Amino acid sequence: MTSYCCFWKPRQPSNMPVLQINHRELISFQGMLGLLGRPGVGVVVIQGIGGSGKTWAAKALYRAAKTSNLFDEYIWVSLSINCSMRKCFNKIAASLSCKTRDSLSVESTRTIIKEYLTPRKFLLVLDNAYFTEESILEYLGVPDPRQQRLGSKIFVTTRTVRARSVMLPNIEIMPQPLTYEESYDLLREKIGKDISFAHDLISYCYGIPLIIILLAGALYDAPTEETFSELVANAHAALSTKTSFFNTMQCMVKFGYHQLPSDNVRHCLLYCLIFPDDQGISVKELIWYWIMDGLLQEAVGFDEANHIGKEILDVLIKHGMVYLDDNDHVHMHNVIRETVSSFGKDMGYKEQSYRYFGNPIIKLEHLSKYSNRVSLMDTEVEYLHGSPNCLLISSLLLRGNYLLKAISEEFFNQMAGTLQILDLSFTRNEVLPHSISYLIRLRMLLLIGCDHLQEIRYIAPLARLEVLDASGCSSLKSVESGSFDRMVFLKVLDLSATSITSLISIPVSMELRHINLQGCPFLGSEATYGVSKGGGIRNLQLGSIEDLAAWMGMLWLPCGLTFQLSDRFGMKVSLDANRHSISYVYASDTYFLKCLGEDSPLWYNCFQKFQIVISPTMDSETMDTDGQVRNTDSIFENSYFRAKHFTYSTDLTRYLEINGTVGVPSDLDGILCHAELILLKRLVMTTRFSDLIVRSMAAVRELWLENCDHLESLLSADEVQALSTVGNLSSLCKGVEDVTSFSCLKHLLLYCCPKLLYLFPSALHFPNLKTLHIRFCDVLKRVFDSSVLGEDTLPRLQSLQLWELPELTCVCGGVLPSLKNLKVRGCAKLRKIPVSVNENSPFVTTTGEQLWWDSLLWDDESIKRWLLFRNWGPLLPHLATEG
């Protein structure tokens, strides 16, 4: 872990309390955590060169504070050398729990910030600050913690001495270089294997974390040892010229850049340059940009391109070129940005210029001369007048211009032939200009977070549009009728968190894959019916699912979908790549599934294979995941683990889990009659299952019960396979009269049922049972009554295990004619075993304690010589689990 040098520097006398620390006193990261609660410390500055771990330390402190709930308010603000004071001010305002109106003046907003924070204990982190102004806190409206005296803290990370000095910190911290051992451990951790070659390379890294991470990224995925050795030699050459810290970092960035696996990956990295350096880029939107800009042309379709985009992003992260924050946004380190910007200029990925132009139209025209991708984001422009001469641009990003109120009607006139990507997100436009209808080549239109936009108009001619995202437009009420009639290529439609009331003209696109209508309180359920039954929806998110039953009957649903159904979070349907084409359902209540009747055609369509989990305890984290509910290979972990011990266990593809409900709901007949494996977990119940529920289990081959503490009795199903960990189970198949045969059952495991007295009534038969394992049932007295003959009830039983059954006195009467393996442990009261011999009998191997064996009673002592007895030894308990 990085160590830090903490020192105090003399300054002009001040009335502020200053904590004096010895010059260059080393403190650990735990010591830094202690600053969060140390009295007299209000402002802390972490100052050092880029890549030394400043932001990492600040993030770790920030997370630790939130985890420990040390403050009332948490504010993280990412800054940059291009970030103005006004922009910093607005970022703080936007981060507060109290929302400020964007129409307020600077002074009014500053007053609101100060009044809100003054009575609260807050933690503010200003990351990568380049402040030069005095009285910076006063301008930002942030109370000085040293005057507030509530224990608030301000942490500032910076590369400049000037920013450090204007903050007047109580403590200044400078990250120390990693030691050799720490550098070695970090490099080995990132590469994922031992690195005996590392001595010279580590000495070239100066102990700077960013250099080590980039080195590991360049080396970690070498396909062969020969390639790995060649990379090591090249790394030596890249790092061997030791002139300065920063020069070495730049050399390492260039080396890592050239080691990226393809030109395509390099282009995807350089694309990040067109976004502001003080903001993260949404992963979802970044991949859309890549797709729409033609960087993923090798993909066959949109879904495949999206998958490839995720793989490329993963490569960039592993190579250390970008990193993810906690909100699923991508960031590029400023040292990396500064180094690769020259490559970007050569390839048409020019960084946004912050040099002032009096007329924004002139600025746009100037930028379009150097690149066909024009970025004019996060400026303070209020109006865009005229029609800029930008005939060749393919992408125009006007995102984040929070003061932009109007765009002239003719603005897009000269972009009609080339513009493919238009981003107007987070602007104040109330209407779209008419000239947007001329953008006939437009593929992506982003209007995210345009709070003042009330209607989407003039988009009907955009026949090539593939992505339309207007999520978060809280005032948006309608989309002009007929807007989607010609959009045969539309793949993504996101109108979530809007006030839209109807979608009369739902897209007819055969390509439509993703629809998000969550958080639309005024949207009626009839909207879902407009989706073409010939389409191929792969991701559908609805906020209202009251009429889900009718929707579920739609036959266009494909296999392999993941459903997430919740009262609180609405409905999500997504397609996740799984080679088994299994549909996954996670529901918080059973009424979502009432529509799935026994004869529903969906059982022969999207639910040919399924895993359904019903649990009322679903939370936001569960609902926000896009992955499968559980990985197929680890499904029902206990079941999977135990089933592997059964030689003939079948591969079942229809699973149902009911977790934490009151009994087994009676409205699941349709699912129960199709489920092959049923897991009942933590059920709150006082009586046995109803006959109706049991008879509905027409296809069940395995039934697992776990932690059903109130269960008193269980009626049988025709094909029960396993019963496990039933804390208060007192009788199995109690009172069963009409169910007399488990004809399909081959393997039965009964595990840890401490209150079970009697197992099976005499009416039951298991004609095909081959394996019976009973373990840890403290009061179980008998499996069958002694009057029940094993020849009739268990004619094919080959393996019998009886473990820790201290009260067991009887297995059954008669003999078990097919028995080959008998293993007994902790069954002191079992004095007779149902074995016999004749010319057709198998050779029976018996494992048990010697004392138990010697105390057995035999009707015919000669039988013992046909039995191979083995005493329990040190390894036998382990080996016995395989029998």
TrEMBL record:
Belongs to the disease resistance NB-LRR family. GO terms for biological process: defense response. This is Uncharacterized protein. Keywords: Plant defense. It comes from Panicum hallii var. hallii. Residues 728-839 form the Disease resistance protein At4g27190-like leucine-rich repeats domain. SUPFAM superfamilies: L domain-like, P-loop containing nucleoside triphosphate hydrolases. Residues 274-338 form the Disease resistance protein winged helix domain. It comes from the Eukaryota. It holds the Pfam family NB-ARC. Residues 38-192 form the NB-ARC domain. GO terms for molecular function: ADP binding. Transmembrane segments: none annotated.
